[in-house]
Amino acid sequence: MPGHQRINKLNCTDRLRADYAHVGLYDVQEAKPWIARRKRGVVPVRVSHARLLVGGTQDTSTASKDRYLCYWYHTPGTGEGHVHGYPIEWDEAHLMVRIDPNWNYANCRFIPNTDAARIEKNIDRQHAWGKRIYQAYLDKNPKVPLSWHMIGPRAADSMFYIQRTEP
Asked: DSSP strand E in the chain: where?
């Protein structure tokens, strides 16, 4: 079943925007980003990634999410504090892409820690997807500096300020 059939189009759109903070899902099989829709009374960056999928809600998840790379897009002033203890300049825009060294999104399989070569290849693939997402936001010509990061389950799995672009 193609990924877009699992997308809840009431809660998200494939029209990428850089003018409001939101969560997003990247369909790795179709190389397509989806983002939370802006709705009255809902802060799109606080929406659950699962809510963007059929069967997911704000409080529960869905296994369908395992085929999508999750990310957050923050406009200036929509984030706060440190991420895994790392300081972030929240007066700029940030793309935070979730990285999971042990999860292969393309075939929805776990990679054991003992398979270091496959884990490294998996990280490289996720980095390439993150770069595509970042480029898609740059194509929207944001009016503020934009940086992208890959955020893992632990600080050691994360990569901060991979690239920063001025308008």
From this structure: 12-13, 22-27, 32-36, 68-74, 82-83, 86-87, 93-98, 103-104, 109-110, 146-151, 159-165
Q: Give dist(CA 123, CA 112) in Å, integer.
A: 13
Spell 146-167 as b/e; 16+ CB within 10 A means b.
bbbbbbbeeeeebebeeeeeee
**pTM of structure:** 0.90
CA pair distance 111, 7, nearest whole angstrom: 26
Angstrom distance (rounded) from CA 116 to CA 162: 22
Residue 65 φ then ψ, to 5°: -65, -20
Average pLDDT (2-16) is 79
H or E segment at 132?
A: helix 116-138
How much is the pLDDT for 2? Answer: 47
Pairwise CA distance, residues 143 & 3, whole Å: 31
User: Which of 50-54, 60-64, 123-127 has the lowest average pLDDT?
Assistant: 60-64
User: Would the pLDDT of 4 be above 50?
Assistant: no
